[in-house]
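Input (Plastocyanin-like domain-containing protein):
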Amino acid sequence: MNSNRKETLSICTGILRYSTISEIPTDLSSFSFPLLSNEEDIRLFSFTDPYETLFENNQMPRRSVDKEIFMYSTQSRTSDGLGMRWMINNSSLDKLHLINLTQPLLLDVYNGIEDNLPTNVIYSIKQNQLIDIVLQNTVAANGVCETHPFHLHGHKFWIHSQGSGMYNPLEKLNPDTNNPILRDTLTLYATSYSYLTPNRTSTNYLKPCGWIKLRLIANNPGLLLLHCHIGSHLFMGMTIIIKEDIEHLVMNYMSQN
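Output:
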């Protein structure tokens, strides 16, 4: 794939070549390039007053939550001492368990079968509950607090608040009330002991180093993953499963020809 890069706009245009064609096309005159948004588009999607009117139904609820789930993330060695695992509340999702399943877990729970659920990483919530999930960061075994980008399947959520050190559930927080944006990813930052700080030492292991709280409405029945989006951290077990409102789970099957 070749590229034609315009320095002023930082736009890359790719040329797709099929295996049956030997020559690479060089004439770009027939290409149709996307147009920049006009002034009206920009006005409608600017994050000012129009945002409030366009997305007023998506504003974060201010009332007290029905349930708060605390996720304490740590890094620890495997039982044989040969490897490392990322843990949430001292539990880690075993990927080998999932690989050996004969059918999806979602189909199991729909049919009332829960024997195969990895119960150590399951967190249950009910229909229409207002849920807060707190992700707590701690220093890894090498003395460094790492940053973790988290992704939640099946939901959009709001970032309620975030802070340094250890989360205190008794502390009165001032959430972001300026129409926080609905999203399905967030970043749990290292607020101390990061790679850029000089105080990196193994004696810092497990020290709290930042937290973030998300808020969601339980309106999507199913089994939903919440996991670190760094591939190695995901496969090292930094994952939990939200078991949401299974009583109202509906399965829609697509016909197969």
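The chain has one domain: 67-248.
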